[in-house]
Amino acid sequence: MSFYTTPSRLAQAEAVNRVLIVAMNEVKFIAFGEKSAIGTRDLAGCSVVIIASAYGAILAHIPPRPIPNTSEPYAGDQNVQRLMEEVGGLYNQRRNYFPDTDTYAVFAIYNGGVALPDQKRIIEEKITQIGLQPFNSIFMLLHEIPQIKLTARFSWTRSTGPARNLSSIRKIARFRVKPSPSLSSKPSKLLKPPPVGSRVSNTGAIISGS
User: Can you tell which superkingdom this protein's organism belongs to (predicted)?
Assistant: First the structure.
């Protein structure tokens, strides 16, 4: 008898070299013209911040403690501050990639509450300071996180005709949270079909999984 599992969406994208992997304790930017996806894995009790548009994305994988770890009691909060400063810096440097943004912050839940409330506060305050309001907070049960895939897909179309400026580009965005069957939360969706006569010029995805 043979046993096999279907590779995760992240693993499939990695196998064909179309995804930029963000390791734990890293912040990275991707232009969707260079690679079509950005992703991360092994969330466990970590937090994730995603800033995305039709043109690119910034993803931060924020652990509870810095790497390498230290005995300093406030090292975790200081590390969050540092990583969020990096997020803000990348956003300002690449501002032309974000004429419109969708921002997500993913937090772990443990024993009925946010696992790291101080770090959640720091992350949300920094997102607000950057000017990315409103944003979306997603909470995931700590013991369920390895089974959950969070996917956001972005594509845009350029309408036919002579217009070539930014206003002629329409964005299609679809977001869905795929919890394991044991969770009761319903996926949220936003889907807009492309106009007749237009063509898709690029596609990007944000993926987290195993």
Answer: Eukaryota
- Do you know the residue count of the chain? 210
pLDDT tens, position by position, 136-179: 888 876 654 443 344 433 333 332 333 333 232 233 333 333 33
Q: Which domains does the chain have, with CATH numbers?
A: 17-208 (3.30.1330)
CA distances in angstroms from 155 to 10, 57, 143, 162, listed in the order given: 18, 12, 32, 21
Eight-state DSSP code of residue 182:
T
CA distance 95 to 198: 26
CB within 8 Å of 161: residues ≥ 6 apart: 168
23: nearest Cα among 57, 45, 48:
48
Q: Residue 106, CB half-sphere, CA atoms under 13 Å: how many?
A: 29
Q: What is the pTM of this model?
A: 0.70
Single-letter amino acid code for the residue at 98: F
**What sign results for the dihedral spanned by CA atoms 80, 83, 86, 87?**
negative
The β-bridge relationship of strands 149-158 and 113-114 is unpaired
